[in-house]
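Long-time lurker, first post. I've been practising inverse folding by hand and with some scripts of my own, and I keep getting stuck on stretches where the structure tokens seem ambiguous. Below is the full token string for one chain I'm working on. Before anyone asks, I'm not after the true native sequence, just a reasonable design that respects the backbone. If someone could post their per-position residues I'd love to compare against what I wrote down in my notebook.
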């Protein structure tokens, strides 16, 4: 009964915390709300008229939605790079950032699920994915494995931080025997969500662009570069606009993780390019379309070469300590690296897999305004959820929110 009373108090105090703040905070939340409403309007048009309002066709059946889903799976998995050193290796420097990282993972997973729902056309078809009722096709379908690992990882990233924050809200220390087993499990689960997503693409024999043994490891390398890069940017914003002060040493350690992962990702990219272009076959046509165009079709050229340029620039700058340890250049490098990997794992991975088609037909894909509106709305939803989670967690960790203490 007491725990229920504490939980009720936590919910009340959290609502007070997230509804109060500076003028900039309210402007930020208001902007996100407007973007979400615009996204909902675009989604209502899609629900009414179907997926025909998107740029997807029977030739290119995955577009902006699945591109963002694939990228965000990596962002969610990146939380493990903070969980492992904090909970398992007992690195005190990561302790300040781990709850922020897990909150980011929760927001990313919610966006992942939202993009899947958007790509399916609407929530009315979700019953197909319910075991025993729909056509779940477990364990043969890789998609069913993806559903399991994503929801399982979402549960882990909600339950572990909730337990820790619930204890801290009461002014008590969390018991390692309770959360350490879950933290260890989440390390393996984070790897699984990205590998299973990669296997989902690798298992499609008719798409030779994805039949690459490096796809799974490269998914992990790019995830462990883009995810922590976003965490650094978020920590920088929190450090500037809140009372939650993150140590410089914490950010520098995360920057080293980003640097190593980005270097490995770039090496794997070079390996893939060598495989595709040194001894090309007809299976290399998708790569030729992506990097050089094919039969006059060049829609993705500006995207992929922008991505590669930003990727190389970020890796070169991060490699040198004087740039990496200077926070202004670090934030710049993290931003361009995040954008580069978003392009590379989005348009650069998903769309070329469908071009050319099995019969050599080239049908290019361009997202419509409806798709872009829905996509922006889902990203705004993720930012909204993360802001709420982060503001609550910061309030508890700084002692501003305590059971029995009135929040100002």
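-- Answer (accepted) --
I ran through it position by position. Result:
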């Amino acid at each position: 009964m007491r725990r229920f009373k504490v939980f009720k108090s936590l919910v009340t105090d959290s609502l007070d915390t997230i509804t109060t703040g500076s003028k900039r905070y309210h402007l930020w939340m208001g902007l996100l709300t407007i973007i979400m409403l615009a996204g909902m309007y675009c989604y209502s048009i899609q629900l009414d008229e179907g997926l025909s309002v998107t740029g997807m066709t029977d030739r290119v059946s995955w577009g902006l939605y699945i591109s963002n889903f694939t990228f965000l799976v990596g962002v969610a998995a990146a939380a493990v790079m903070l969980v492992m050193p904090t909970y398992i290796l007992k690195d005190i420097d990561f302790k300040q950032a781990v709850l922020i990282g897990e909150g980011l993972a929760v927001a990313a997973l919610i966006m992942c699920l939202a993009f899947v729902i958007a790509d399916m056309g609407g929530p009315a078809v979700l019953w197909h994915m319910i075991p025993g009722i729909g056509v779940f096709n477990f364990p043969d379908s890789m998609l069913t494995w993806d559903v399991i690992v994503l929801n399982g990882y979402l549960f882990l990233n909600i339950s572990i931080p909730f337990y820790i924050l619930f204890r801290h809200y009461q002014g008590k220390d969390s018991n390692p025997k309770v959360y350490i087993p879950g933290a260890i499990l989440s390390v393996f689960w984070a790897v699984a969500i990205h590998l299973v997503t990669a296997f989902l693409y690798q298992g499609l024999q008719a798409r030779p662009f994805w039949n690459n043994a490096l796809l799974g490891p490269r998914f992990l390398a790019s995830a462990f570069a883009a995810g922590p890069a976003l965490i650094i940017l978020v920590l920088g914003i929190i450090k500037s606009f809140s009372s939650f002060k993150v140590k410089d040493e914490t950010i520098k350690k995360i920057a080293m993780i980003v640097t190593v992962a980005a270097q490995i990702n770039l090496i794997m990219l070079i390996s893939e390019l060598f495989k595709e272009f040194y001894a090309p076959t007809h299976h290399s046509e998708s790569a030729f379309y992506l990097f050089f165009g094919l039969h006059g079709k060049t829609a993705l050229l500006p995207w992929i070469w922008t991505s590669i340029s930003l990727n190389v620039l970020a890796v070169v700058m991060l490699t040198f300590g004087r740039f990496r340890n200077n926070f202004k250049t670090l934030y710049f490098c993290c931003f361009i690296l995040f954008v580069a990997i978003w392009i590379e794992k989005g348009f650069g991975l998903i769309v070329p897999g469908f071009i050319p088609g099995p019969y050599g037909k080239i049908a290019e894909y361009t997202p419509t305004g409806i798709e872009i509106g829905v996509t922006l709305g889902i990203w705004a939803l993720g930012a909204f959820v993360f802001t709420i989670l982060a503001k609550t967690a910061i309030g508890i960790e700084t002692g501003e929110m305590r059971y029995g203490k009135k929040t100002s």
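A couple of notes from the structure itself: Residues 156 and 181 are 11 Å apart (CA to CA). The chain has a mean pLDDT of 87. Happy to go over any region you disagree with.
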